[in-house]
């Protein structure tokens, strides 16, 4: 194991620092297809046009149990890793802390504007209402939008990078077993609509039938939706970041490139814990290398963690041509 640890450190030396690439305005939502605020229930800012374009801190309140459907100038596709990012406006009550004041949303996608597949959501936090000024740990939710603070408004940040942009990233691959996808009614390579539906705290259920709680108790506030993979940037040479987190807190990270690991851009490696950017080299150096081959590397965090420790980890990486992959995962609780 000592040899594996030293090799992992060597990989960190290869894949460590940071850089960013700009993105075009076409990767943001361009059209409000429909909006329902349930009579402006819950109060807030009710302007659906605020959800168009890049994240900019201007928001639209969905209304308690409300929803909004957005269209795009590009057609989303299922690429390597996360495919789009949803930006709400959660905030940390303690600077640098891992807890946020959050109001959550279900996320659904459609290829025909009629059939919408909902991401299989998970709630891992306490089965109690946090209170109007309470907080939740970033990592209490999976495949729900609204828990991770937005960083895309930071000067120089890459709005398509799951670490630099913040917000909550979604991988269309998570919908492969959805009945609508299996029936051919939703095409994951041709998504034209994204719908956000407000979670009603204590009433809405996750995919396992567990009640979801969020601190706000009001309605979610949508800022923007950013496309990472679309039909216009498909490239068979793109890298892949795979990230698996198990209920006991152990994790596996796979970094690879179809043209060989030498094509990975070491300056583009990014990492975040609880939505807070951290030194990617330091994070990976704590893992154990279990596989190294011509395409890439597999590293694991093999030590089980305390059952009470929820967390969310994000990794992103580009190849030397600027093709990207990234992934974010929360630790499930096994309920």
What does this protein structure show overall?
The two termini are 33 Å apart. The protein is globular, with a radius of gyration of 19 Å. A 5-stranded antiparallel sheet has the order 1-3-12-6-7. The chain has a 4-stranded antiparallel sheet with strand order 15-16-20-19. It has a 4-stranded antiparallel sheet with strand order 18-17-21-22. The protein has 2 domains: 2-20 and 235-330, Immunoglobulin-like (Sandwich), CATH 2.60.40; 25-233, no CATH class. Mean pLDDT is 91; it is low at 1-25. It has 335 residues and is mainly beta. 7% of the residues lie in helices and 30% in strands. Strand 19 and strand 20 (296-301) form a beta hairpin. The chain has 3 helices and 22 strands. 50% of the residues are buried.
Ends: how far apart? 33 Å
**Number of separate strands:** 22
Q: Give the DSSP E fraction (strand runs of 2 or more residues).
A: 25-35%
**Category from helices, strands and their pairing:** mainly beta
Q: What integer is the average pLDDT? A: 91
Order of helical and strand elements = HEEEEEEEEEEEHEEEEEEEHEEEE
Shape: globular
What is the tally of helical segments? Answer: 3
Query: Unreliable segments (pLDDT under 50, ≥5 consecutive)?
Result: 1-25
Percent of residues in helices: under 10%
Tell me the strand order in the biggest sheet.
1-3-12-6-7
